[in-house]
Amino acid sequence: MEDRLSNIRHGGAHRATRANKAFPGMTRQRRSLAAVAIVIVALPLTVLGLAEHAAGAADTQTTVTLSSVADTYGNAQQPTTPQGGKTYAFGTTTVNQAFVKFETTGVTPPGGHLTSAAVVLFTRSNRAIEPGLLIHPASSAWDEATLTASQRPPYQADVLNDSISSPAGQAVSVPLTTLSAINLTSRTSFEIRYSVPDSSYMFDTREGAHPPQLVLSFRFDDSTSSTASPSTRPSTPSTTTAPSTSSSSKPITTVAESTPSSPSPSSGTTTPTTTTPATTTPATTTPTTSASQPPDTGGVLPFDMPNTDRSAKMVFAHYFTPYPISLDNEPGVSDYYATEYLDPAGEGGRNADSGGLLRDRPLLRAPLGGDWQLTDAETEVREAVSAGIDGFTLDLLSTGGRHWDRDLRMMDAAANVDSSFRIMPMPDMYSMQSVDSATLASMLATLAAKSSAYKLSDGRLVVSPFKAEARSADWWTTTFNLLKSKYGISVAFVPTFVDFGRAADYRAISYGYSVWGGGSPSSVSASNGDTAHSQGMKWMQPVRVQDERPNQNIYDEAKNLATLRASWDAALNTDADWVQLTTWNDYSEGTSFAPSVQHGWTFLDVSSYYVNRFKSGAYPAVVRDAVYVTHRTQMYDAQPTYPQTSLMVLRSGSSPAVNEVEVTSFLVDSSTVTARVGATTFTWTAPSGMSTHVVPLTYGTVSVSASRGGRVMQATTSPYLVTAEPWVQDLQYHGVSSRR
């Protein structure tokens, strides 16, 4: 709701200062291994790629990380009962033995030579006090659904690793000493035991929160390339080392196709036309397109982004400095996000009661050379530009230090990437409650001197403070008079309110209004925009996608992309002058539009469809088929297996909680859409253009395809398994695209 308390927005003072701490004080006790399980498995195959290898570079390496395609164990107490499908497996000395299988067929990049291999397991419990985790080779002639203690692969006595310990609640990487055990032309299986008697060793399976991983490292000589072609590269592996130049910085290419004009978006929640049982496909063996799908060399979006005049309707995204692409330039699988923010035990366990500070993070990347922080900021500007965003509203959290440095760096990055990309300063009046007029005027003058600062045609600097009502209209008048008298800078004041009911107090000094906005469909309002226009004010409509705050124990029900659609509709219905996406990258509130680990480019892509409409006055023609899938990985009332003592509850006034999967289709012509959710299949006819359809969320894998004329045109399978035993409470919506 729009009158939410400001501490709900910024989560208390520790939120504003957490990322401002000196990094030499970080706790880096290699909790990164736990983060490997948290981060890697969550990445869609489409957002990672093999590290690029330039011809002539010697001893270049790349790492391929595979998630298990099958895992189970034999229970001697139930010798004829299969144990497959459970979220855990036991590996002890004689009673229970676990089996894990990986799809290693053809994973070797051209010219690559396998140099190391390690199995990563997340340990749920282990009563042993001595090292004893052992990995044996195993035949792959077993099936997860049928393996039992009495019918299991023959035991092979060879041991593939040095015996190590595996503490409970942590991931452990087990280096393999015998690389010949990796079958690069077929599947590779292992038997896992714990040699200490009565150890009762238990680890997560692929149905759990942290599936087993097989990490393979390859080296290249100076005459080969590590970049596998799409036609030969298997769909299973994802890589832990992303290219230093991400796909986000590449221009979007398009292919002209003959297509009818796209109608306005339609949606539906009707009962599927047919419902039949379906076999659940493992989430880790999911290509983003069907094998029967023809090659498609078109763009990554289902429509073309037009060139529009940025002096008219403008779209901004709220940039939050605590969460840039990287905090320390470490590899993504072992950086501060992975080891501290995503790990419940991170940062000394200060957020252990809520299962960790974050549930999402920016896309992973490899370490960069040079001024990596500026490079990252430039990447974020390019990502925003590619989605039709005209600028950032830049959150000013402090008068100096790390956050202020990032503010200045983002101003420079915008100028470097796109001379027309504009930055609107947004002093955060919750975090800077004690700032005085002279200090704020000095800060704004520094930003105004940058070429990327957003100024109107008459030269006025546009300033839009968050929670402007924290200071009186007289205080703001004093600040802006000082800015004018001392620095010669005039201001166009566009306060962003938490409580829009206070807007009338600032009418005499305002150029426009905005409000922070709500995170569920029921909290989206168009009336505030009407009020602003009735008073002769410009209106900046907030557009959100969702809101979940683990460390504040509260969430909104976004109903997949319903909040996104409702808030864009409000912008269109009120003829808003500007739009503010709230937010670009605030992962602590789950509101990010920026490309991320848990939703890829889905939110940004779908929002771009409305950006087209907002700027041009018409929805764009769909010229390429695409399907997007959004869903949670757990039911809204699921109980985590991690000892999380503080759980999120539904915010008062939010839309009621739901357990649903949503399919958003962009089709050049009417098509048959098939969604498989766990063991159930849903089929319906989707019209041309953009449409949405909702089906029930159930346990298992979620996949969708769109077929026309008997041929699969687009298909994708979500790598995010829906489980009844989640590791931590996570009520954000994940997203997958068939085109990225």
What does this structure look like?
This protein is an alpha/beta fold and 740 residues long. The protein contains 12 helices and 33 strands. Strands 1, 3, 5, 7, 9, 10 and 11 form a 7-stranded antiparallel beta sheet that branches. It has a 7-stranded parallel beta sheet with strand order 16-15-14-24-21-20-19. The protein has a 5-stranded mixed beta sheet with strand order 12-30-27-25-33, covered by helices on one side. The chain is globular and about 85 Å long.
Annotate the secondary structure layout.
Blueprint: H1 6-10, H2 13-17, H3 32-39, E1 60-67, E2 70-75, E3 88-90, E4 96-103, E5 112-125, E6 133-138, E7 170-175, E8 187-194, E9 202-204, E10 213-220, E11 238-239, E12 266-268, E13 274-277, E14 314-319, H4 336-341, H5 346-349, H6 372-386, E15 391-396, H7 401-417, E16 422-427, H8 437-448, E17 461-463, H9 473-487, E18 491-493, E19 496-497, E20 512-515, H10 527-534, E21 538-543, E22 548-549, E23 554-555, H11 562-573, E24 578-581, H12 602-616, E25 626-631, E26 649-650, E27 660-667, E28 671-677, E29 680-686, E30 689-696, E31 702-708, E32 711-717, E33 734-737
Parallel strand pairs: 12-30, 14-15, 14-24, 15-16, 17-18, 19-20, 20-21, 21-24, 23-26
Antiparallel strand pairs: 1-10, 1-11, 2-4, 3-9, 4-8, 5-7, 5-9, 5-10, 6-8, 13-29, 22-23, 25-27, 25-33, 27-30, 28-29, 28-31, 31-32
